Amino acid sequence: MVHVLTRAFYAMQDTRTPARFTAVAEHGAEIDPSQERVRAFLALLKERQTVLDPTLVAFETMFVGKKGEISPTYSEIAGRMPPQVRRSFLSGSLPVPAGKESLYRSSYRAMLRMVKAAYDAGIPIVAGTDDMAGFSLARELELYVEAGIPAPEALRIATLGGARAMKMDADFGSIEPGKAADLVLIDGNPAVRIADLRKAWLVVKGGVVYRPAEIDRVIGVEPAS
Description:
The chain is mainly alpha-helical. It contains 9 helices and 3 strands.
Protein backbone atom coordinates (compact mmCIF):
# COMPACT_ATOMS: atom_id res chain seq x y z
CA MET A 1 0.00 0.00 0.00
CA VAL A 2 2.76 2.45 0.86
CA HIS A 3 4.47 1.68 -2.42
CA VAL A 4 1.37 2.99 -4.24
CA LEU A 5 1.40 6.17 -2.19
CA THR A 6 5.14 6.61 -2.48
CA ARG A 7 4.93 6.48 -6.24
CA ALA A 8 2.03 8.93 -6.12
CA PHE A 9 3.85 11.50 -3.97
CA TYR A 10 7.47 11.09 -4.98
CA ALA A 11 8.57 11.41 -8.59
CA MET A 12 10.10 8.33 -10.18
CA GLN A 13 11.44 8.66 -13.66
CA ASP A 14 11.45 4.93 -14.37
CA THR A 15 9.60 2.37 -12.24
CA ARG A 16 11.26 -0.49 -14.11
CA THR A 17 14.39 0.01 -12.02
CA PRO A 18 15.09 -0.98 -8.39
CA ALA A 19 13.97 2.56 -7.48
CA ARG A 20 10.41 1.25 -7.33
CA PHE A 21 11.53 -0.53 -4.17
CA THR A 22 14.32 1.64 -2.78
CA ALA A 23 12.25 4.83 -3.03
CA VAL A 24 9.58 3.16 -0.94
CA ALA A 25 12.19 2.16 1.63
CA GLU A 26 13.65 5.68 1.70
CA HIS A 27 10.35 7.60 1.89
CA GLY A 28 7.66 5.20 3.06
CA ALA A 29 8.12 6.06 6.72
CA GLU A 30 7.21 9.68 5.90
CA ILE A 31 3.68 8.69 4.89
CA ASP A 32 1.00 8.49 7.55
CA PRO A 33 -2.80 7.98 7.34
CA SER A 34 -3.38 11.16 9.36
CA GLN A 35 -1.86 13.38 6.66
CA GLU A 36 -4.34 15.38 4.60
CA ARG A 37 -2.69 14.35 1.32
CA VAL A 38 -3.02 10.69 2.29
CA ARG A 39 -6.65 11.05 3.36
CA ALA A 40 -7.42 12.76 0.06
CA PHE A 41 -5.69 10.01 -1.89
CA LEU A 42 -7.54 7.27 0.00
CA ALA A 43 -10.81 9.08 -0.66
CA LEU A 44 -9.99 9.14 -4.37
CA LEU A 45 -9.24 5.42 -4.36
CA LYS A 46 -12.56 4.77 -2.59
CA GLU A 47 -14.44 7.00 -5.05
CA ARG A 48 -12.94 5.18 -8.04
CA GLN A 49 -13.41 1.77 -6.37
CA THR A 50 -9.75 1.04 -7.00
CA VAL A 51 -8.79 -2.47 -5.87
CA LEU A 52 -5.56 -2.72 -3.88
CA ASP A 53 -3.27 -5.74 -3.77
CA PRO A 54 -0.76 -4.91 -1.00
CA THR A 55 1.62 -7.92 -1.46
CA LEU A 56 2.98 -7.30 2.03
CA VAL A 57 4.99 -10.52 2.09
CA ALA A 58 7.15 -9.38 -0.81
CA PHE A 59 8.02 -6.15 0.97
CA GLU A 60 8.49 -7.88 4.32
CA THR A 61 11.27 -9.95 2.79
CA MET A 62 12.89 -6.94 1.12
CA PHE A 63 12.64 -4.46 3.98
CA VAL A 64 12.85 -6.65 7.08
CA GLY A 65 14.85 -9.66 5.94
CA LYS A 66 18.60 -9.84 6.49
CA LYS A 67 21.10 -11.60 4.29
CA GLY A 68 22.06 -14.93 5.86
CA GLU A 69 18.89 -15.04 7.99
CA ILE A 70 15.46 -16.43 7.19
CA SER A 71 12.86 -13.70 6.83
CA PRO A 72 9.72 -13.84 9.00
CA THR A 73 7.90 -14.46 5.71
CA TYR A 74 9.36 -17.95 5.53
CA SER A 75 10.18 -18.79 9.14
CA GLU A 76 7.13 -21.02 9.60
CA ILE A 77 7.73 -23.06 6.45
CA ALA A 78 11.51 -23.07 5.98
CA GLY A 79 12.07 -26.26 7.94
CA ARG A 80 9.67 -28.16 5.69
CA MET A 81 11.34 -27.18 2.42
CA PRO A 82 13.99 -29.02 0.38
CA PRO A 83 17.57 -27.80 1.05
CA GLN A 84 17.87 -25.78 -2.17
CA VAL A 85 14.67 -23.89 -1.35
CA ARG A 86 15.82 -23.21 2.23
CA ARG A 87 19.05 -21.76 0.87
CA SER A 88 17.09 -19.35 -1.29
CA PHE A 89 15.41 -18.03 1.86
CA LEU A 90 18.79 -16.78 3.08
CA SER A 91 19.30 -14.35 0.21
CA GLY A 92 18.07 -11.51 2.39
CA SER A 93 16.60 -8.15 1.58
CA LEU A 94 17.37 -5.17 -0.55
CA PRO A 95 20.94 -3.97 -0.10
CA VAL A 96 20.43 -1.66 2.88
CA PRO A 97 22.75 1.36 3.04
CA ALA A 98 24.75 1.50 6.25
CA GLY A 99 22.77 3.07 9.06
CA LYS A 100 19.39 2.81 7.32
CA GLU A 101 18.19 -0.53 8.68
CA SER A 102 15.81 1.22 11.07
CA LEU A 103 14.46 3.43 8.28
CA TYR A 104 13.68 0.43 6.07
CA ARG A 105 11.86 -1.29 8.93
CA SER A 106 9.93 1.89 9.71
CA SER A 107 8.82 2.10 6.09
CA TYR A 108 7.58 -1.47 6.31
CA ARG A 109 5.61 -0.72 9.47
CA ALA A 110 4.11 2.26 7.62
CA MET A 111 2.86 -0.22 5.03
CA LEU A 112 0.94 -2.12 7.68
CA ARG A 113 -0.66 1.10 8.92
CA MET A 114 -1.66 2.10 5.41
CA VAL A 115 -3.25 -1.27 4.65
CA LYS A 116 -5.39 -0.87 7.78
CA ALA A 117 -6.25 2.70 6.76
CA ALA A 118 -7.32 1.48 3.33
CA TYR A 119 -9.46 -1.22 4.91
CA ASP A 120 -11.06 1.28 7.31
CA ALA A 121 -11.76 3.59 4.36
CA GLY A 122 -13.72 0.85 2.59
CA ILE A 123 -11.24 0.45 -0.26
CA PRO A 124 -11.46 -3.05 -1.82
CA ILE A 125 -8.42 -5.19 -0.99
CA VAL A 126 -7.42 -8.50 -2.54
CA ALA A 127 -4.92 -10.93 -1.06
CA GLY A 128 -2.13 -11.39 -3.56
CA THR A 129 1.43 -12.20 -2.58
CA ASP A 130 3.80 -11.76 -5.55
CA ASP A 131 5.76 -14.47 -3.78
CA MET A 132 6.09 -18.24 -3.32
CA ALA A 133 2.96 -19.84 -4.75
CA GLY A 134 1.01 -22.02 -2.38
CA PHE A 135 2.94 -21.11 0.76
CA SER A 136 2.99 -17.34 1.15
CA LEU A 137 -0.74 -16.58 1.21
CA ALA A 138 -1.07 -17.61 4.85
CA ARG A 139 1.67 -15.14 5.78
CA GLU A 140 -0.02 -12.39 3.74
CA LEU A 141 -3.21 -12.85 5.72
CA GLU A 142 -1.28 -13.02 9.00
CA LEU A 143 0.14 -9.61 8.15
CA TYR A 144 -3.34 -8.20 7.49
CA VAL A 145 -4.31 -9.35 10.98
CA GLU A 146 -1.08 -7.92 12.38
CA ALA A 147 -2.04 -4.63 10.74
CA GLY A 148 -5.31 -4.64 12.67
CA ILE A 149 -7.80 -6.25 10.27
CA PRO A 150 -9.92 -8.86 12.10
CA ALA A 151 -9.13 -12.45 11.12
CA PRO A 152 -12.64 -13.16 9.74
CA GLU A 153 -12.29 -10.09 7.52
CA ALA A 154 -8.88 -11.24 6.31
CA LEU A 155 -10.50 -14.53 5.31
CA ARG A 156 -13.27 -12.66 3.50
CA ILE A 157 -10.69 -10.60 1.62
CA ALA A 158 -9.00 -13.80 0.43
CA THR A 159 -12.23 -15.49 -0.65
CA LEU A 160 -15.35 -13.48 -1.43
CA GLY A 161 -13.35 -10.27 -1.79
CA GLY A 162 -11.24 -11.71 -4.58
CA ALA A 163 -14.28 -13.19 -6.31
CA ARG A 164 -16.06 -9.83 -6.21
CA ALA A 165 -13.04 -8.02 -7.61
CA MET A 166 -13.07 -10.42 -10.57
CA LYS A 167 -16.87 -10.18 -10.99
CA MET A 168 -17.12 -13.90 -10.25
CA ASP A 169 -18.87 -13.80 -6.88
CA ALA A 170 -22.07 -15.28 -8.33
CA ASP A 171 -20.23 -18.58 -8.61
CA PHE A 172 -17.26 -18.39 -6.25
CA GLY A 173 -16.05 -16.89 -2.99
CA SER A 174 -18.51 -18.25 -0.44
CA ILE A 175 -20.29 -21.46 0.50
CA GLU A 176 -23.85 -21.05 -0.76
CA PRO A 177 -26.39 -23.15 -2.67
CA GLY A 178 -25.74 -22.95 -6.41
CA LYS A 179 -22.10 -21.88 -6.13
CA ALA A 180 -19.10 -23.98 -7.12
CA ALA A 181 -18.18 -26.33 -4.29
CA ASP A 182 -14.50 -25.37 -4.12
CA LEU A 183 -13.50 -25.87 -0.51
CA VAL A 184 -10.47 -25.92 1.77
CA LEU A 185 -10.88 -27.82 5.03
CA ILE A 186 -8.64 -26.55 7.84
CA ASP A 187 -7.59 -28.47 10.93
CA GLY A 188 -8.18 -25.48 13.15
CA ASN A 189 -10.06 -22.21 13.28
CA PRO A 190 -8.41 -19.44 11.23
CA ALA A 191 -11.25 -17.07 12.11
CA VAL A 192 -9.76 -17.10 15.61
CA ARG A 193 -6.12 -17.96 14.88
CA ILE A 194 -5.22 -16.93 11.36
CA ALA A 195 -2.04 -19.06 11.42
CA ASP A 196 -4.26 -22.16 11.32
CA LEU A 197 -4.54 -21.55 7.59
CA ARG A 198 -1.26 -23.46 7.35
CA LYS A 199 -3.09 -26.61 8.46
CA ALA A 200 -4.98 -27.35 5.26
CA TRP A 201 -6.26 -30.93 5.53
CA LEU A 202 -8.36 -31.35 2.40
CA VAL A 203 -9.03 -29.37 -0.77
CA VAL A 204 -11.94 -29.81 -3.19
CA LYS A 205 -11.53 -28.05 -6.53
CA GLY A 206 -13.69 -28.63 -9.59
CA GLY A 207 -15.11 -31.77 -8.03
CA VAL A 208 -11.65 -33.28 -7.48
CA VAL A 209 -10.42 -34.05 -3.96
CA TYR A 210 -6.80 -33.23 -3.10
CA ARG A 211 -4.89 -34.04 0.07
CA PRO A 212 -2.21 -31.39 0.72
CA ALA A 213 0.00 -33.76 2.74
CA GLU A 214 0.22 -36.16 -0.20
CA ILE A 215 1.03 -33.35 -2.65
CA ASP A 216 3.70 -31.99 -0.29
CA ARG A 217 5.47 -35.35 -0.15
CA VAL A 218 5.54 -35.65 -3.94
CA ILE A 219 7.28 -32.27 -4.32
CA GLY A 220 9.76 -32.89 -1.52
CA VAL A 221 8.05 -30.79 1.16
CA GLU A 222 7.43 -32.05 4.68
CA PRO A 223 3.68 -32.00 5.38
CA ALA A 224 2.45 -29.47 7.92
CA SER A 225 2.19 -30.95 11.39
